[in-house]
Amino acid sequence: xxxxxxxxxxxxxxxxxxxxxxxxxxxxxxxxxxxxxxxxxxxxxxxxxxxxxxxxxxxxxxxxxxxxxxxxxxxxxxxxxxxxxxxxxxxxxxxxxxxxxxxxxxxxxxxxxxxxxxxxxxxxxxxxxxxxxxxxxxxxxxxxxxxxxxxxxxxxxxx
Amino acid sequence: xxxxxxxxxxxxxxxxxxxxxxxxxxxxxxxxxxxxxxxxxxxxxxxxxxxxxxxxxxxxxxxxxxxxxxxxxxxxxxxxxxxxxxxxxxxxxxxxxxxxxxxxxxxxxxxxxxxxxxxxxxxxxxxxxxxxxxxxxxxxxxxxxxxxxxxxxxxxxxxxxxxxxxxxxxxxxxxxxxxxxxxxxxxxxxxxxxxxxxxxxxxxxxxxxxxxxxxxxxxxxxxxxxxxxxxxxxxxxxxxxxxxxxxxxxxxxxxxxxxxxxxxxxxxxxxxxxxxxxxxxxxxxxxxxxxxxxxxxxxxxxxxxxxxxxxxxxxxxxxxxxxxxxxxxxxxxxxxxxxxxxxxxxxxxxxxxxxxxxxxxxxxxxxxxxxxxxxxxxxxxxxxxxxx
Lengths: 159, 388
Prior knowledge:
The structure holds 2 protein chains of 2 kinds.
Chain A: H1 12-27, E1 33-36, E2 43-49, E3 60-66, E4 77-81, H2 111-123, H3 134-140
Antiparallel strand pairs in A: 1-2, 2-3, 3-4
Chain B: H1 3-15, E1 19-23, E2 28-33, E3 47-53, E4 64-71, H2 75-91, H3 98-111, E5 138-140, E6 147-149, H4 150-182, H5 188-199, H6 214-217, H7 221-225, H8 236-264, H9 302-312, E7 329-333, E8 341-343, H10 346-351, E9 367-371, E10 379-385
Antiparallel strand pairs in B: 1-2, 2-3, 3-4, 5-6, 7-10, 8-9, 9-10
Helix pairs in contact in B: 2-3, 4-5
């Protein structure tokens, strides 16, 4: 399920930035998220707990964040691994249709701010369902394509 | 002319274009507060508009004021300013106070003229608290006042440009292909397209997403075009070392050539050799490669003795057919060692290098020094390489 395109190692700038982000995360992690400690700075596994009083309350999911060589100038690749939550913008292969992960990425964003956006996306959902084009999309991505290669169309600003 | 009118005129004189009278009676005015930076607006990192509203009873009744359009000022800082101004006006009573308030506000904003956030690229503070930390230059975008380390921003800008350039190159080449297929025309048309596309390079402020215009970044042009901090960036480091290496190789080659030229012309003074040929200095073993060295005042250890013999015996360096077994060398040593044999480790093996340099590496570190009989009360040392 996880997509792992051959990755270039982090640039020095990217490594510095990620170390800084990690140390800030350790001091002040976003509510509802837990970073699984590994020695790999380039791939973070983050546990998400659905916010109380939402459709996903107390449900546990795992996010995988892969950082490119030129992070934060380039967006990281963020996907759900194992069981992706049922959500109109989350495909069964874990890909997330969220503009800030692609076209609207800005280097001012952090892992922490991404997490908050994803949780807010989950929390505002009113229906637990897959996107209507899920099967077609997942079929197209079968050979481990990164969601960053997808040409996303962000049409829904409500969820 | 009453007092109020004089005061408003003074205000206009002091603040010029930054002053705007919204209403004459009751007086309501607006002053753009800017830090005093000798009109270098690129160094103004904070800015706010102060709106002062007075009543008909002014100055008997104090005016009210509020901030608007604050840039580079956090809520906390804005509240600080308002509190400062409030406590100031509470000390004033029944006197013209518009100018006093505005000047206090400008003083305050001048003292706060620094970004208080972190650089959004590296997440480190723009202004370091500690005095010892090296200060990294920072910059603002002229219209939105968002601040970054100049090198962080420049790196991002160049990266965007490169990406844009690569994208448009791909586009142009595909366009060119299309054109050539359809019309078989020259590339002049596509050149026109490409320059138009490059001009349309658009960047948004990473923080607020407002479009960055040329005027927003003109003051940091040098960071946008060149990498002023090259060593920091990946890849450049290796380029740097290799360029240093090439330079060093060139330098060495130059010196070597110079030395050759000097030697050829006999213009160089070779190191003096402490060689004295004495009868019977050659051992019976052949080939003869040994040199006898006169007694040197030396209370040295075995290692020193070894290095002495090594340096003084430079003539044997050039001997091509050195047989380490048979090569015997005598060096004096004033050393009444208890042991007949002294084993010398690797450190001395290096000192010993000059006259065993034709031996293989495996022999190194296994050189034995054998004390032989004394001559005229002095000990002689036999130095060779023992075969395993």
